[in-house]
Design brief:
Layout lengths: L1 H15 L3 H7 L2 H16 L6 H32 L3 H11 L4 H7 L1
């Protein structure tokens, strides 16, 4: 099933890309993660702390950066399975936002 979702996500992303109007309205998942990283860096990375504390805070930040999107993804996965087969199409559309192949080709 994951391969099917990945294939459908690629097809949707290739056909539609990530619309500018959507980016202007809510941003992009990559920008969301960038904001999270910036927030954690400001909150947890203090030059006055010892190296040991900064390392601990870095591990804490890494766990947050991994867990927040992971838990959101898991929640969406479970929710979308409850409304199968419509959830398959929704998962493909949501997954297409994470691929960015069309936008990368246009901007590079």
């Amino acid at each position: 099933m994951s391969v099917l979702i990945a294939f459908l996500s690629l097809a949707v992303e290739r056909a539609l890309g990530y619309p500018d109007w959507l980016f202007n309205a809510i941003g992009h998942p990559v920008t969301w993660i960038g904001r999270l990283i910036s927030f954690l860096d400001r909150r947890l990375n203090r030059a006055t702390d010892s190296d040991e504390i900064r390392r601990r805070q870095g591990v804490r930040a890494l766990l947050i950066i991994l867990l927040v999107p992971g838990l959101i993804g898991l929640g969406l996965h479970v929710l979308l399975w409850l409304i199968f087969p419509t959830g398959l199409v929704i998962a493909a559309v949501l997954g297409s936002a994470l691929l960015s192949q069309k936008s990368l080709a246009e901007h590079v």
